[in-house]
Amino acid sequence: MIKWGIDLGGTKIEGVVIDSSTDNKIIARKRIPTEGDKGYHHVLFQIKKLVEVLSSESGQKPTQIGIGTPGSIYPPTGHLKNSNSQHLNDQPFLVDLQNLLQIPVRMANDANCFALAETQMGIVKDEMPKAKVVFGVIMGTGVGGGLVVNGKILNGANGIAGEWGHNILHESGGTCYCGKTGCVETIISGPSLERYYTEVSGQYKPLKEIVADRLTDPLSKATIDRLIQFFGIGISSIINTIDPDVIVIGGGVGNIDLLYAKGIEEVKKHVFNPDCTTRILKPKLGDSAGVFGAAFLN
Question: Which CATH number fits domain 129-282: 1.10.10.10, 3.40.390.10, 3.30.420.40, 1.10.260.40?
């Protein structure tokens, strides 16, 4: 079966055409700039342009397309919300795109697409193919998540299933852009960790250097210790709430190896059970996850 996926990012739009009947063979793949500064309608036509290019390269015509977006659709209005690409917010994005392409479009946020991709053709398929409940975590510039149950994305009544990054973790994180104080995102996202280091040291250091210097710089160590502590508390709240079979950690912060050793031990301290059998895994697909997950929305 031929599947089409589009991953809409702030700076680029990536598309893929795959054949799921031949072990997800890639038939065509292409990236073009988003050019969001030119406005909402321009982005719609950039997506149409990408579909046309993929059609030409693959020799295929889509009958439906999956698209991963920043933000998500609010079910009562059908409008996009919570997108860091501000020109998309409060717009009937799904309806407008379907009208432009004249085919059905399935849409989910990028964290959900990440979780779905790792379930269908990534690390979950490789190591836990019988997993029924998969939670995909994004820890990078922001903190988000996606939930897959029995191979399908669970969106929820408000379209926010999996958005653990905006649960309250600790007031020391300060004010979040969402209006609350102390969200998970204000404490364990990459920029938040860098901000904490700057506050305690008086100087800026990128996260990669903070991680590398943790054995020689006490303030780097304190920053990473803080990450481990609050990672444990935050992830345990996911396990205590939905009890997934597996959690896959994506995003730049998710590349920190200590999360899969000390971080897991910290999670176990806070899980409401004598032991924790939930697997916590690194992803397999990397930057490809979003576009492949979008394809599996079909």
Answer: 3.30.420.40
